[in-house]
Amino acid sequence: MMSCRRLYSSFSILLLIAGLGMTQSGLTVTATSTAAGTPAVYAFSFTADQELSPRAELAVVFPSGFDLSKVVMADSRSMDGGWLVRVQGDTVWAQRSGLGKAMAAGTEVDLILAAVVAETSAAAPEWLLLHQEENALQTSRQRAEITLRKADRL
Length: 154
Description:
Elements (H helix, E strand, L loop, with lengths): L3 E6 L3 E5 L2 E12 L7 E9 L9 E5 L4 E2 L6 E2 L7 E6 L2 E6 L11 E11 L7 E8 L2 E8 L2 E6 L3
């Protein structure tokens, strides 16, 4: 089993979906390492409050202190199909390829990003999650105290 650290957030993520306020809840951030300068796999898990289509685009805006220049791969244990990845500054965008099935509202889903490097070992208190469906952008910004907890595996 791979040793890793789990970052728990004590907040709900709010997504503004197609102009309607809908709650996105239970964001959990898990990393294989939080050591400064070490490439790691980060997994973002949450419960979808609206259907995620096979072409949905998810993005994570990282807090300051992360090097995203080597992030070229995304995956998911819960969503099938492929992913297209692009990095724009502090944001990693991952678009579903259209080959997978839609994920129903209420389903726990995850997004896994590889080769994320924390430039410092301190946990960041704020994450921004974006979700786009057919060019309608939904955003969320929540502050939270994120604590480190040892986990058996990612």
